[in-house]
Every structure is written in structure tokens, then in C-alpha cells.
Amino acid sequence: MSTKWLVVVVMLATIGCAEQKTSVVRRGGCEVDLKKICSAYFSQPQFTLNGQEYDATRLEQNSRRHENIELPYKYPNGDLIATVECQVDTSNRTISYARLVGGPPIDEKAVAYVRSQGLCADQSPDYGKMLTIQQQEITPSGTPRN
């Protein structure tokens, strides 16, 4: 299981403000599409939620049709950059929306970190390869049934 998702999500989340209603976040000349981050995470063959491994079938069988799942974005040292909420259609793993829902204020350090990770739109990021998420910390807003 790759932990690349956390880093990418953290970086992308740092670009926006503390609460966003759009999936595109712009800050300090860097633009990140949170919906693409969520999509890349749930497009993996396997991913972790609440410390448990999931695949498409298990997610669909153990979750509501439209599940809200929060992905924490952190620096490598574990400090929170931001949290991205993804609404996932669990039957086909498409993302209905994505937005920032929390974290400290986005500062220039966060923007510089996101840019250093190649996550800004002008850097043509491959979110599927760059995301480094500490998957054990990812929790749905409503916990999936086991």
C-alpha cells in the first residue's frame, strides 16, 4: 500500500483556505484540483480507511452509496497542513465533490511545500504517483460498516 497519497493531499490542501466549497484551490501562484486528488486515491486497487484495507468491492459493500471521507494532508514530520473532504460514489468510485474542511491557515511555507512536491497545475502533476497519505489516519465522516 503506497503512502504517497498523504503527502500529495497535504500539499494540495495547503494551497487553499481553511474551508473551500470548490475543488480547485489557488494560493501563491499554485493551483490544485482536490477532486483529482480524491479520484487518484480511490482509483488505487487497494487503499486504507480507519487502518483497514479496502478495494472497490469492499468499499461498495461496507459503505453508503455516497460516503464523505476526510483525507488529512500532512508534512513529512506529521504536522497537519489541511484536511480534504471527498464525497465518493462507492458504486463506481467517482468523486461528487472535494473541498478543504480544516487545518491551520495556509501560509507561504505550505504553498512552497506543495510546489516542491510538483502538485501545482502548472507542473502537470500525476496525482496517482505523487500522493503520500498516511492511510491509517484517513477516516470517513460516517464510518463504513465492517
Low-confidence stretches: 1-20, 132-137, 142-146
Domain module tally = 1
What Rg is obtained from the alpha carbons, in whole angstroms?
Answer: 14 Å
Number of strands: 8
- β-strand percent reads 25-35%
Individual helix count: 5
Instruction: Give the class from helix and strand content and strand pairing.
Output: alpha+beta
Spatial order of the strands forming the largest sheet: 7-6-5-8
Helical amount among residues, as a percent range? Answer: 25-40%
Which descriptor suits the 3D outline? globular
Output the helix-strand order.
HEEHEEHEEEHHE
Mean pLDDT: 76
Largest sheet: 4 strands, antiparallel
Distance between the termini: 20 Å
Describe this structure in words.
The protein has 146 residues and is an alpha+beta fold. The protein has one domain. Helices cover 27% and strands 30% of the residues. It is built from five helices and eight strands; from the N terminus they run αββαββαβββααβ. The strands form three sheets. Strands 7-6-5-8 form a four-stranded antiparallel β-sheet. It has a two-stranded antiparallel ribbon with strand order 1-2. A two-stranded antiparallel ribbon has the order 3-4. Strand 6 and strand 7 form a beta hairpin. Helix 1 (4-14) packs antiparallel against helix 2 and helix 1 packs across helix 4 (108-116). It is globular.
